[in-house]
Structure formats: C-alpha cells, structure tokens
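A.,

Following up on our hallway conversation. Structure tokens first:
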C-alpha cells in the first residue's frame, strides 16, 4: 500500500515580479513533499496540455510521484499570480482552468483505496464526490485553508479523519470551538495553523499546542503544505501529536528556504501571463 495520494488541485504559481513560474497546488505539494520524506506518494489530478501542465507533470515524475491516473486534457492549466513583499507571498488573481473538471472512474476509486491516506483540499472542486472518495479512502485528509465557514466545515466533518485550517487571525477559543464541533460530527483530528502563534491539534482527548521553528525565510509559498506533509506522514507512522506537531513545524521551516513550493522554477515572458482577474 502506498503512503499518500494527493487528490485534487494543481496550479502554476506565476511569480510576476520575477517572470518565473513554479509547479504547485496544495495536493501536488503535499504529494511531492511526502516523496521527499522518503515515502511512496501519488498524485491524481487534471492538467491542461500546455507548458504549465507539462512543467507540473515533469516535476512530479522527477520527484518519483506516481502519476498514472493523472489526466492531461485540452485546455488551460490552473494558474495563480504571486507577488512578494518582504519574502511573504501575496496572491493577485487565479484561474482554476481545467483542474476541477472531474470524471472519476471505478479504476480511479480502486487506485484511491491503495493508499494509507488521501489528501485533498478546498481548491479541488471535489466536494460533490467526497462521499465516494470517503468510501474508498482508508483515511481522508482535507485542507480548508482559509476558505471556510463554520457551516461549510461542519458539512464535511462526518467524512474526514483529519481537517486542516489556516486560522492565524482567529483567537484560540474560536479555533477550539470550531474543532470541537467538527469532532462531535465525526472528524478525528482538527489542526489549526496560526502563523507565528504556532499550531493546535485538537481531538476528543484535548488540545495539543505546537510552536513554530525559527528559520531564515526566503519564500513562504508552500510552507503550509509542507506542514501538512510533515504532520500526515508523522501521524501515519504512529507518533504522538506533540512530536507530530513539531515534525510538521520543522518541515514548514525548512520549506521557507525554498523558492516556490518545491523548486523547479521556469522562466516565462510577460506576454504568456494570463490577464489579471
């Protein structure tokens, strides 16, 4: 059985102040960073048959990620425009392209079932298919990022083993209350990343707190996905939540020293950049 499947979103991160694009997307990044941790990883998604799509597919394969079920179709690969301010990333528009045009087959669901954990995200457009994915996946992880409300997270809670939230602007009491509601509905672990305040991992047995690991920041893009990869792979290995949070923080800190989510920067000309939305 393979360790992890990244199922869902992909994107070309367009660094508009550098004219460089990087392969990315939450579920792509988590799959690649799992492979870099030494575990068998796969990615299942939909890419456009264009230069960004070929860049993403080539990077996945060079990292040893299984891509046999990934589709490349006519159309535009997802893109996100990124600008930087003091090494922190600011998003300036995006287009999902073909990345959410899903037609999963019985063979795909059989492939999903061959992984210890399946990770998807709020950017993947898979919510209508999540009940079927839940039936196939031994464990299901979902990143809500900052794209969540109390009601939208509660609707998915019964199907999830692990839920991740970006909640840097939320007080701890609100984070714990949301997590406890999700746990009451069926989620096993809720993880809240809170920027410089560290992270919380909440279960029905209590609240675990993790601190950030100091680092020299080159680029914050992908640090949250590195945290998720570190958390899931340590948790699957059976470590306690205290050491799991620390391992996740270490991976996030290490990723901050990387341009793009995991490298592979490729120049592009401004004329190739999609119009700002």
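Then the amino acids I'd put at each of the 277 positions:
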């Amino acid at each position: 059985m393979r360790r992890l499947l990244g199922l869902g979103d992909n994107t070309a991160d367009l660094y508009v102040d550098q004219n460089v694009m990087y392969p990315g997307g939450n579920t792509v990044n988590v799959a690649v960073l799992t492979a870099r941790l030494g575990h068998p990883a796969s990615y299942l998604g939909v890419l456009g048959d264009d230069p960004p799509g070929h860049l993403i597919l080539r990077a996945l394969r060079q990292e040893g990620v299984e891509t046999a079920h990934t589709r490349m179709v006519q159309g535009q690969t997802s893109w996100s425009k990124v600008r930087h301010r003091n090494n922190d990333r600011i998003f300036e528009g995006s287009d999902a392209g073909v990345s959410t045009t899903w037609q999963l087959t019985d063979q795909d669901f059989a492939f999903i079932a061959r992984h210890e954990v399946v990770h998807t995200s709020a950017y993947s457009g898979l919510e209508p298919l999540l009940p079927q994915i839940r039936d196939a996946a031994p464990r299901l992880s979902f990143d809500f990022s900052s794209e969540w409300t109390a009601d939208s997270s509660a609707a998915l809670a019964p199907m999830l083993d692990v839920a991740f939230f970006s909640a840097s602007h939320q007080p701890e009491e609100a984070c714990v209350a949301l997590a406890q509601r999700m746990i009451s509905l069926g989620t096993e672990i809720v993880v809240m990343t809170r920027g410089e305040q560290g992270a919380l991992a909440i279960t029905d047995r209590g609240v675990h707190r993790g601190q950030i690991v100091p680092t020299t920041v080159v680029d914050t893009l992908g640090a949250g996905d590195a945290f998720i990869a570190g958390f899931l792979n340590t948790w699957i290995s059976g470590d306690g939540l205290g050491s799991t949070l620390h391992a996740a923080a270490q991976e996030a800190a290490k990723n901050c020293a990387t341009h793009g989510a995991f490298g592979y920067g490729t120049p592009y000309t401004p004329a190739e950049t999609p119009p700002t939305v």
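The mean pLDDT is 94. Curious whether your intuition agrees with the design.

B.
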